[in-house]
């Protein structure tokens, strides 16, 4: 029969064939073959702790872990994917409790244990285990992923019907013939063109539904009629896509008939023959917004200069 030393954590006080006696809970011996109960003085520290003195356990610090009980030190998280490894708190018990401390512009994907770029519209200005980036203030965004500062939130969020070109900070309305349905999207760098042969009546269209047929010169699309309608006297529209409406003739000019593509000058002429070229009906229609019927009739004999008009006026 062979006698073996009592293992660590047990002791035996006398001779004989008795079994070794286990130490009390949470204490152990320093070595094998312990002979007295007083040899059970070392603390048995649990996972996540280390024995900092014979009778005292301390928690593993942030950035460390301990997956074996009763040891005198903790293990470092080290480096993870090129970033300093750390833990969310003290007393970590496994290597899987370690995560990379992501740099500026990066947030922690806790599930994958990887660092990802902050999405557009967010930023992160610190090295940390943060799992979220900071949102930009209302109405502002960034121009790319991975923003590292609040200062990067200097680009306007464009509403539908507009776009922001790359590296531009402000929004621009979609031009005639274009539309943009997206609103508050990441980066909308252009608008969508209407199908061939169609345009929009206004800038800033938000849907393809606003694309209407391009009308021939001298006419414009009328929403109520749902078709192209000739420009009335005093209004004109050149051939082409834009502008899509009939425009008021400049001061001192008018049109001879409906459906005109350009305006002609009105000149003062005392010759009845010259004045007769303009019928009373024509003059009345042309100048009704400026003169009375009696005044329009007088213009059969003496054309009067037009007053100033708002060049921005248009006829739909």
From TrEMBL:
Species annotation: Plakobranchus ocellatus
Residue ranges of every copy of the Tyrosine-protein kinase ephrin type A/B receptor-like domain listed in the record: 2-40, 53-98, 105-153, 161-211, 218-262
Coiled coil: none
GO biological process: signal transduction
GO CC annotations, alphabetized: cell surface; extracellular space
Record's protein name: Signal peptide, cub and egf-like domain-containing protein 3
InterPro entries on file: Growth_fac_rcpt_cys_sf, SCUB_EGF-like_domain, Tyr-kin_ephrin_A/B_rcpt-like
């Amino acid at each position: 029969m062979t006698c073996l030393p009592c293992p660590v954590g047990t002791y035996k006080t006398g001779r004989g064939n008795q079994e070794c006696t286990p130490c009390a809970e949470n204490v152990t011996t320093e070595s094998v073959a312990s002979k007295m109960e007083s040899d059970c003085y070392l603390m048995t520290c649990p996972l996540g702790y280390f024995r900092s003195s014979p009778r005292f356990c301390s928690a593993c610090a942030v950035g460390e872990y301990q997956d074996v009980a009763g040891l005198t030190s903790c293990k470092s998280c080290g480096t993870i994917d090129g970033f300093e490894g750390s833990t969310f708190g003290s007393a970590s018990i496994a290597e899987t409790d370690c995560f990379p401390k992501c740099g500026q512009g990066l947030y922690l994907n806790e599930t994958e244990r990887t660092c990802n770029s902050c999405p557009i519209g967010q930023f992160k200005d610190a090295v940390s285990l943060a799992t979220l980036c900071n949102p930009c203030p209302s109405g502002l965004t960034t121009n790319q992923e991975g923003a590292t500062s609040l200062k990067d939130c200097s680009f306007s969020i464009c509403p539908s019907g507009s776009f922001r070109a790359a590296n531009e900070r402000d929004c621009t309305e979609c031009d005639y013939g274009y539309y943009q349905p997206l609103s508050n999207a990441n980066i909308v760098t252009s608008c969508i063109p209407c199908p061939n042969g169609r345009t929009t009546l206004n800038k800033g269209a938000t849907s393809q539904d606003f694309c209407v047929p391009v009308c021939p010169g001298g006419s414009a699309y009328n929403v109520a009629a749902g078709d192209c309608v000739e420009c009335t006297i005093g209004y004109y529209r050149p051939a082409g896509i834009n502008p899509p409406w009939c425009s008021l003739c400049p001061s001192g000019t008018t049109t001879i008939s409906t459906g005109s593509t350009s305006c002609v000058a009105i000149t003062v002429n005392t010759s009845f023959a010259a004045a007769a070229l303009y019928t009373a009906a024509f003059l009345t229609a042309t100048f009704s917004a400026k003169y009375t019927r009696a005044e329009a009739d007088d213009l059969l004999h003496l054309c009067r200069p037009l007053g100033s008009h708002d060049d921005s006026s248009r006829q739909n």
